[in-house]
Design goal:
Layout (H helix, E strand, L loop, with lengths): L1 E2 L2 E2 L2 E2 L8 H16 L1 H14 L6 E3 L1 H7 L3 E6 L9 H15 L3 E5 L4 H13 L2 E7 H6 L1 H9 L3 E5 L6 H14 L4 E3 L10 H24 L5 E5 L4 H8 L8 E9 L16 E6 L2 E6 L23 H8 L3 E7 H15 L5 H13 L8 E6 L7 H8 L5 H12 L1
Parallel strand pairs: 5-15, 6-7, 6-9, 7-8, 10-11, 10-15, 11-14
Antiparallel strand pairs: 1-2, 2-3, 4-5, 12-13
Helix pairs in contact: 2-4, 4-5, 4-9, 5-7, 9-10, 12-13, 14-15
The structure holds pyridoxal-5'-phosphate.
Length: 409
């Protein structure tokens, strides 16, 4: 389905001349690594000794009984080191950086999760590390900034523009252009110019490979449907990859419906009329943009789903009808989270809870011998203030209001 970084008409690499050589170098390194079975073996070994791979596939017995339909399994990416599937991508890129002989990594981060994961990888491999973060986000994400610095990263607050993620992206590219010789830019999701979407999806495909083998062993058959939340699209592509060639397995991506699609306060690029196909940030996909190509404001209760673009591979899967896309509103997400915590003792990240919402809508309409898998992309510990506020826990109220000032800025 892929030719030169294109998936249908999506993807590509729209780059300034000065970055061409670096991207060629990266593409070659990636192709060689992919063709070398030792590379994947080294990666899988690293992930099984440094993170928690293979992550378990948990049967959610109580939720299954509660909904009275399909058997609900949960793929436990929350058990990865640093608490989410992001570890798969950054550790894989770390191995590639070592192979390319580079010594420094840079990244940009909004919510801070990708920054912490990248700083962790850099500490493990002994790379120098610089993290760009909008000044507003630095204020909102103090705990993550603290850990990045303890891990040895230099965190640079970006004071340009609106001082958020997109300004940090510009700054990171500026750094890369002047330091290409020794520096690799660790992109955090299956977006951006070729080869990033394909490369990040490949590292994350370890999720789907494991899940397919695990469900076959446990159930003796393939699942009916797979559910994953969609920010940039890396955890979704990761689990979908294992089942792409199984035509009977339905792939379901769930975007942030925010306060509702009709309010404009959401981050749905694949299900709303607010998005259009365009070229930005070096690649072609659906972006939340107006007729003039101006990017729109996005909103989600989950910071990790709050992005204007989406993986070109997912745009392709939508176009071809191979995957189905849905949205979950903030309110539905909070309810699904409450139920999952109480019934199953699992604490999904707010991002992951989007996938639970759609699975809970579909499961009761399925037969008890059918099987579904939800990708729990991360753990919810980081969301304590947002969740406690949403649950309106009175004991926490005062503490939260005080904390929320710095958290939500
Ligand atoms: C970052 C993040 C996401 C969104 O990123 P994708 O690339 O769409 O997977 C989802 N879940 C969690 C827990 C995250 O930290």
């Amino acid at each position: 389905m892929n030719h030169n970084g294109y998936f249908s008409d999506f993807g590509g690499a729209f780059l300034p001349e000065i970055l061409m050589a670096t991207f060629d170098e990266l593409t070659t390194a990636f192709k060689n690594a992919k063709a070398d079975p030792n590379f994947w073996r080294e990666y899988a070994t690293l992930m099984s000794t440094y993170s928690c791979r293979p992550t378990p596939l948990t049967l959610a017995e109580n939720l299954t009984r509660h909904f009275g339909g399909a058997r609900i399994y949960v793929k436990r990416e929350d058990l990865n080191h640093t608490g989410a599937h992001k570890a798969n991508n950054v550790m894989g890129q770390g191995l590639l950086v070592k192979r390319m002989g580079k010594t420094r990594v840079i990244a940009e981060t909004g919510a801070g999760q990708h920054g912490v994961a990248t700083a962790t990888m850099a500490a493990r491999f002994g790379f120098d590390c610089t993290i760009y973060m909008g000044e507003v986000d630095v204020e909102r994400q103090r705990p993550n900034v603290f850990w990045m610095e303890q891990l040895g990263a230099e965190v640079i607050p970006v004071k340009d523009g609106t001082r958020i993620l997109k300004d940090a992206i510009n700054e990171a590219f500026r750094d890369w252009v002047s330091n290409m010789d020794n520096t690799h830019y660790v992109l955090g999701t299956a977006c951006g110019p070729h080869p990033f979407p394909e490369m990040v999806a490949w590292f994350q495909s370890i999720i789907g490979q494991e899940a397919r083998a695990q469900v076959l062993e446990r159930e003796g058959k393939l699942p009916r449907s797979i559910y994953a939340c969609v920010g940039g699209g890396s955890n979704a592509m990761g689990i979908f990859s294992g089942f792409l060639d199984d035509a009977t397995v339905e792939l379901v991506g769930v975007e942030a419906g925010g306060r509702g699609l009709d309010t404009g306060a959401h981050a749905s690029r694949l299900c709303s009329g607010d998005a259009a196909i365009g070229v930005a940030q070096g690649y072609k996909t659906y972006f939340l943009q107006d007729a003039e190509g101006q990017m729109k404001e996005t909103h989600s209760i989950a910071a990790g789903l709050d992005y204007v673009g989406v993986s070109p591979i997912l745009s392709h899967l939508k176009e071809t009808g191979r995957a189905r896309f849905a949205v979950a509103t903030d309110r539905e997400v909070v309810e699904a989270m409450r139920l999952t915590i109480r019934r199953e003792g699992l604490i999904p990240a707010l991002e992951s809870a989007h996938a639970f919402v759609q699975a809970f809508k579909d499961a009761p309409n399925m037969a008890p011998d059918e099987v579904i898998i939800i990708n729990q992309s991360g753990r919810g510990d980081k969301d304590i203030f947002t969740v406690a506020d949403a649950f309106q826990d009175p004991g926490w109220r005062e503490f939260i209001i005080k904390k929320a000032k710095q958290y939500h800025a």
